Structures are given as C-alpha cells and as structure tokens.
C-alpha cells in the first residue's frame, strides 16, 4: 500500500504545481479581463487587440463602436478590446511610478 502511495505522490505533486503555476493565474487574468470588458462605457479610451486607439461612442452587449478620428467610426466585437486607457488609470500608474522612484532613492 505504501509503495502505491509513493508511486502516485510525484504525479499528485505535479498536478498541484500545474494548478498553482498555470491554471490559477490564468483564471485570475480571465476574471480580470471579463471585469474590464463589462465595465467599459461611452467615452472610455481603449486600445484594441490589433493596437488601434479610439474612444467608445456606442456599445451594446456584443459590439463596440470606436471613434478613431473625426470622421472615422469602426465597429468591433467587445472581446477585441485589449485595454482601457482612462485618465484615472494613467494617474494611478503615475502615482505608483513616483512611489517606486522614491523607494529606490
């Protein structure tokens, strides 16, 4: 019985390691992405997965309309949004950067 347990133990340890190093972080990123996609609203400045910058002028459950220039509006799937670049996000990033610089001095 103990030999069987010793034979299965390395396999179980590998499974636990896979969970904590691969599966769990991926689930956290996926939840954060879904939270970000659900919280976008009109006026938000976003970047698509293709690198296109624009501001949201219309959105529904499936699609987002971005204003890229004065005369150009493009329609994307909501899942094509890579990041939201609001002034709030930029200012908090600036504050964190200043804290890091102060800590390094």
Automatic annotation (TrEMBL):
One term under GO cellular component: plasma membrane
Q: Which GO terms describe its biological process?
A: protein transport
Fetch the Pfam families from UniProt.
YajC
Q: Which domain of life is it from?
A: Bacteria
Which residue ranges run through the membrane? Answer: 6-23
Keywords of this entry: Cell membrane, Membrane, Protein transport, Translocation, Transmembrane, Transmembrane helix, Transport
Membrane topology term reads: Single-pass membrane protein
What NCBIfam families has UniProt attached to this entry?
yajC
**In which family does this protein belong, per the annotation?**
Belongs to the YajC family.
Tell me the organism's taxonomic lineage.
Bacteria, Bacillati, Bacillota, Bacilli, Bacillales
Give the subcellular location: Cell membrane
Name by which UniProt lists this protein: Preprotein translocase subunit YajC
- Biased composition, Basic and acidic residues: where in the chain? 95-105
Q: Where is this region: Disordered?
A: 86-105
């Amino acid at each position: 019985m103990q030999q069987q347990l010793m034979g299965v133990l390395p396999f179980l340890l590998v499974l636990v390691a896979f969970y904590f190093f691969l599966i769990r972080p991926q689930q956290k990123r996926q939840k954060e992405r879904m939270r970000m996609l659900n919280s976008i609203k009109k006026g938000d400045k976003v970047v698509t997965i293709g690198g296109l910058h624009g501001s949201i002028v219309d959105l529904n459950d499936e699609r987002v309309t971005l204003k890229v220039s004065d005369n150009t509006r493009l329609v994307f799937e909501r899942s094509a949004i890579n990041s939201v670049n609001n002034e709030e996000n930029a200012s908090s990033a600036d504050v964190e950067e200043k804290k890091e610089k102060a800590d390094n001095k």
